[in-house]
């Protein structure tokens, strides 16, 4: 796989090409390629998630000195949620580099917002290992932080769970319920899939490395589906 075009786009050359390639190895690929020498990108995703939270938190802390913690937390959540990261991953063309099983490929894995968001984080983790936090900061400031103006302008920073609950209570007079419907990975790298249910109907799903994050993503998914049906 030739990743030179991507390196040019993100303005970063990797001394070890395998370090970059590893960011695109989905765990399903390994099931069909037992002799593949690299592991999945989940460890890099774990590292990239931590880098992303630190870089974005630092930026918000410095650029919004008068704002309270809650506001900064909501801004960060809006910047780093699955939809935002997947959109950025699509812009970078990350889906074309993914190594997937045939099943994931046939199921539209290259367009999956969850896989794309996870790959963005894995790429950031690879960047950190290659060059350190300064280059990660440049990467995030170039490709992700420009969204901040639009998020504030359109009040997209409000917590998705709160917005969805307000919507269902106002329109349907019911409170949504959240359930964890799948978990995987070792204890130190656990992943969760959550569903949000309205009148026992699953209306949205989300994934994350914590139950709370998965529930927020499920609420965001439900909001997008709701708006799409209007």
List the defining traits of the structure above.
mainly alpha; Ribonuclease iii, N-terminal Endonuclease Domain, Chain A; 2 domains; three-stranded antiparallel β-sheet
Verbal overview:
This protein has helices spanning 4-10, 17-21, 27-32, 42-63, 69-80, 82-92, 102-106, 113-131, 133-143, 148-153, 160-171, 211-229; strands at residues 177-184, 191-198, 201-208. The chain is mostly helical and 230 residues long. The chain folds into 2 domains: 4-153, Ribonuclease iii, N-terminal Endonuclease Domain, Chain A (Orthogonal Bundle), CATH 1.10.1520; 160-229, Double Stranded RNA Binding Domain, CATH 3.30.160. The longest helix is centred in the N-terminal third of the chain and has 22 residues, at 42-63. It starts with a helix and ends with a helix. The mean pLDDT is 90.
Topology:
Blueprint (H helix, E strand, L loop, with lengths): L3 H7 L6 H5 L5 H6 L9 H22 L5 H12 L1 H11 L9 H5 L6 H19 L1 H11 L4 H6 L6 H12 L5 E8 L6 E8 L2 E8 L2 H19 L1
Antiparallel strand pairs: 1-2, 2-3
Helix pairs in contact: 4-5, 4-8, 4-9, 6-8, 8-9, 11-12
* Main beta sheet strand tally, sense and closure: 3 strands, antiparallel
What is the global morphology? Answer: globular
- Fraction in helix: 55-70%
Share in β-strands: 5-15%
Measured on Cα atoms, how large is the radius of gyration? 18 Å
Query: Which structural category fits the helices and strands?
Result: mainly alpha
Average pLDDT level? 90
H/E element sequence: HHHHHHHHHHHEEEH
Overall number of strands: 3
Strand line-up across the major sheet: 1-2-3
Whole-number count of domains: 2
Q: Catalogue the unreliable spans.
A: none
CATH homology-level superfamily of the largest domain: Ribonuclease III domain
> What is the CATH fold-level name of the largest domain?
Ribonuclease iii, N-terminal Endonuclease Domain, Chain A
Q: What is the annotated CATH architecture of the largest domain? A: Orthogonal Bundle
Distance separating the two termini = 42 Å
């Amino acid at each position: 796989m030739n990743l030179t075009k991507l390196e040019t786009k993100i303005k970063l050359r990797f001394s070890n090409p395998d370090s970059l390639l590893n960011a695109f190895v989905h765990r399903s690929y390994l099931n069909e390629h037992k002799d593949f020498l690299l592991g999945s990108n989940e460890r890099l995703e774990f590292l990239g998630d931590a880098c992303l939270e630190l870089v974005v938190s630092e930026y918000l802390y410095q650029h919004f000195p008068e704002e309270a913690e809650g506001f900064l937390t909501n801004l960060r959540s809006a910047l780093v949620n699955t939809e935002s990261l997947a959109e950025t991953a699509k812009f970078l063309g990350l889906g074309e580099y993914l190594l997937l099983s045939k099943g994931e490929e046939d199921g539209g894995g290259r367009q999956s917002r969850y896989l794309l968001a996870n790959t963005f984080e894995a790429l950031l983790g690879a960047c950190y290992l290659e060059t350190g936090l300064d280059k990660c900061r440049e990467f995030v400031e170039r490709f992700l932080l420009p969204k901040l103006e639009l998020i504030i302008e359109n009040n997209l920073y409000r917590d998705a769970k709160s917005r969805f609950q307000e919507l269902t209570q106002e329109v349907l007079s019911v409170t949504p319920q959240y359930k964890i419907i799948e978990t995987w990975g070792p204890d130190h790298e656990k992943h969760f899939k959550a569903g949000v249910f309205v009148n026992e109907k699953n209306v949205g799903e989300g994934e994350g490395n914590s139950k709370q994050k998965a529930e927020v993503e499920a609420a965001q998914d439900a909001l997008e589906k709701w708006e799409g049906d209007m």
